[in-house]
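Supplementary material to the annual report.
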Amino acid sequence: AQTVTQSQPEMSVQEAETVTLSCTYDTSESNYYLFWYKQPPSRQMILVIRQEAYKQQNATENRFSVNFQKAAKSFSLKISDSQLGDTAMYFCAFTHKGAQKLVFGQGTRLTINP
Amino acid sequence: EADIYQTPRYLVIGTGKKITLECSQTMGHDKMYWYQQDPGMELHLIHYSYGVNSTEKGDLSSESTVSRIRTEHFPLTLESARPSHTSQYLCASSESGQRQFFGPGTRLTVL
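Predicted assembly:
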């Protein structure tokens, strides 16, 4: 069975700093997808960034980028120039090609301090 | 604009009442999901559907039931609410089963 582990329950950084959230996963599949979702306080969960396992290049979306290490089964999220609006729960998620469901990690609560 | 909607957003109800949480999406997605999430905690999949007349139980056992009579509508029902059902319920939909789009959630409190 696939599992996703986020080892940092909480993190806190100052505004404008760079922060990295960790995620590891376990799978025997070779063709899969990884996601980072953001859930701001009392607001809707939204997709931050997505990575396809067969792509070697790390995905980037503006200030958000990932470090995808396929051999190590690691998928960390880096937020550059952090902003107060980045304060949220962040969930790492996994699915393999053909699967119909996502497997979520436990979440990391990120607080950006002014 | 295509979106996913949940009503009510907040519900406070007494023990023993029957409740239905509504979820609708206008994106034409076949796949829909219900998650249970205690505030600030991880998500637990409780039900999912791959299309009309298809429903499956998720990874976390739940006393709730679901139906999927129309593509856009995936309501969740609790026949007799209990305090242990107090939680947030998130609905999601997906075209491919990969990227999921989430609704705003219903925060349920059972007294």
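The first strand of chain B starts at residue 4 and ends at 7.
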